Structures are given as C-alpha cells and as structure tokens.
Amino acid sequence: MRYVKAETILPENLLKEIQKYVQGEYIYIPTENMFRKRWGEKSGARHQINERNVEIRDKYKAGHSVSELAEEFFLSIDSIKKIIYRKS
User: Fold this and answer.
1) Which terminus of the chain, N or C, has less C-beta within 10 A?
2) What is the rounded CA–CA span in Å between residue 55 and residue 38?
3) Every domain of the chain and the residues it spans
C-alpha cells in the first residue's frame, strides 16, 4: 500500500469536509467492493471450528459427558459447556 497526498486526488470541498474529522493523520480508505470477512473465513479455520462444535454437540447428545469431551478435544469444561448450550 502506498500513501498519496489527499490534495492531489480529492476535490477541495471533499478535502475540507474530511479535515473536519481528521487533520495530519493517516487514514485508510478501503476499496468499494471490499467486504470484511469474519475471523477464520479466509483460512478455513472458522469452518473447521464449526465442524468440531457440531461433533461435540452430537457426542454430547449421544451420551458423552462434558468432562470426557473436554479431555478428547483438549478444551476446558467451561468451553465445552459454551459450545453445547449455544443456540446455533
């Protein structure tokens, strides 16, 4: 990413409006079509965690105890409870 002087690319009236909010600071203006992805969506980590959570809920419904699941998935008992009782 390169920096560009605002006065070289923005109309004077827009520059004056922006200066009402920011003066002498760097600001980042994202591209118009850029939408923000949630954590882990780009790498696939969120999908893997969602699959793991479904597996945890299924095993709990099948009769596994919270402590068994915590040990199997290397999570705390509180984390397992949050996964089990979360509405999805």
Assistant:
1) N
2) 22
3) 45-85
